[in-house]
Amino acid sequence: MEYARTLRELRAARYQTLSVKDELRSNLIRKLRAGEKLFPGIIGYDESVVPQLTNGILSRHNVILLGLRGQAKSRIIRLLTELLDDRIPIIAGSEVNDDPLQPISAYGRQLLAEHGDNTPISWIGRDARFVEKLATPDVTVADIIGDVDPIKAAKGGHLLSDELTIHYGLLPRANRGIFAINELPDLAGKIQVGLFNIMQEGDVQIKGYPVRLPLDVMLVFSANPEDYTARGKIITPLKDRIGAEIMTHYPRELPAAIEITRQEAWTGRYEIQDRLIVPEFLREVIEQIAFEAREDNHVDKHSGVSQRMPITVMESVISNAERRALLTGDELIVPRVADVYAAIPSMTGKMELEYEGEQLGGNRIARDLIKRAAGEIFEGYFVGIDFSRTVQWFDEGNKLLLADTASASECQNLIEAVPELLETALIPFDFRRSDTAQLVAACELVLEGLYAENKITRNEEGSYAAVTKARKDRRGMIYDDLTETGKYS
Fold first, then answer.
1. Sign of CA dihedral 67, 70, 72, 73
2. Using CA atoms, how far apart are residues 452 and 367, in angstroms rounded to an integer?
3. What are phi and psi of 430, to 5 degrees?
4. Is the pLDDT of residue 486 over 60?
5. DSSP category for residue 84
6. Rounded-to-integer distance, Cα 60 and Cα 262, Å
7. 383 phi and psi angles, rounded to 5 deg
8. pLDDT (0 to 100) of residue 81
9. pLDDT at 68 over 70
10. What's the pLDDT at 482?
11. CA 69, 75, 76 angle in degrees (round to 5)?
């Protein structure tokens, strides 16, 4: 495609400028009519966030996404660029993407006055029309709006009050594009006032000089709902100018959470991808950990538990299984529950604990979350199945150690000593008894489920044994059987 290089060519092509919000709206309508997916890679929001955001764009609103960490707010904001045109024309050399048909800067107007129809035109892509800033307390007016540049004034022979001496900030440079601010409440009040003036009046004062900047910008913000309040963190006029407040959320169903982790976790490791098998029930256990953490009273609800937690846990689980295969020489790499315990360092940093949780310690909290998550998934697969003979074997004083470094064949040999464990572990799944590594993973799920039901106990080394008589009737007691010594409870 040939692009106009001068204003004369642009006019000859009958180019018409759309405001950025009209442009977003037009391209959104086209995608909706064509049945295209609006935000590829965003899972679990089709019935909640996406319709609300679509309405906001159709209404030409500035929007804010309110949600806890790890809810894909930044990714959604960046995907808005897909609704921009491939390219738009600007006056060549303009810092603020001046529209050749209606420039807003002194530079653009001056160039147009000098060259007329021969004014040079440049074309910029959609990525260059997106500007993003993380709000922090040290952000200044100069960063966002701009400042007087004495060097420019000296080199050009201009007065400091001349608009040509301005070094434009991020917001003017986002003209005819999308300007995003993450964590809006952290922005100082005077910066919020500057944003409001731009949105409301189209002007701003820089070093005391009034500058008229009728910017054409789609403003998108993100914030934690706990901080987005009228308690002084957000000035009321700015809040009033935001057209749509859209609440994001964590995955509401396990399948959506599994799909997100499947998409985001680094599992395509070329050295092992042909040998890696991640059992579906283990994916469910990993996701259930996050669901349990979000409901746990020892975890700070205001901070939330990011969806990044199951993603990093999955990566660590696979790495531990890969390490085991390197040590044992196993051909297949099949993660199991022992690998989830090995991934605890990937959990503890993702949870902000309440006071009582801090007293218990992140390690103990993580162990209990694994136990409860495995218990939930176990019940889903093995409801109504009798494990009395397996439990009786432990009650007779037998123990079973399944270390996370033990090979699949070694674990199977140990498991075969436990009555009916292998046979019952096969019932819900379609793999064969010869699928050693997967069978061992299923058996570990059974053992962890029995542990969650307080029918057997487990120590930190991964050794299962009988529950003491005093605890036989204490199912559901949280943290009772977690110790830091590795001894049995």
1. positive
2. 11
3. -100, 10
4. no
5. S
6. 34
7. -60, 130
8. 96
9. yes
10. 45
11. 100
Nearest-angstrom CA–CA distance, 450 and 387: 8
Contact assessment for residue 126 and residue 84, using Cβ atoms and an 8 Å cutoff? yes
Q: CA 97 to CA 59: how far, in whole Å? A: 24
Distance CA 176, CA 154 (A): 30
Q: Which two tokens stand for residue 391?
A: 């439990």
Cβ contacts of residue 334 below 8 Å, gap of 6+? 276, 277, 278, 279, 321, 408, 437, 438, 440, 441
Say yes or no to pLDDT of 475 above 50.
no
Average pLDDT for residues 123-148, to the nearest whole number? 87
| Nearest residue to 371 via CA among 229, 476, 301 | 476
Domain ranges of the chain: 7-246, 254-471
Q: Which residue has the higher pLDDT, 186 or 374?
A: 374
Tell me the C-alpha distance between 55 and 244, whole Å.
9
Q: Are 180 and 222 in contact (CB under 8 A)?
A: yes
pLDDT above 90 coverage of the chain, percent: 67
Contact assessment for residue 454 and residue 446, using Cβ atoms and an 8 Å cutoff? no
Q: Please name the residue ranges forming H helices in 248-307.
A: 254-264, 280-295
Helix (H) or strand (E) holding 220: strand 217-223
> Over the stretch 3-39, which tens digit does the pLDDT of each residue have?
899 999 999 999 999 999 999 999 999 999 999 999 9
Torsion, Cα 356 358 363 365, to 10 degrees, reads: 30
Name the β-bridge partners of 415. none
DSSP 8-state class, residue 118: G
> Which amino acid, 411?
C
Topology (CATH) of 7-246: Rossmann fold (3.40.50)
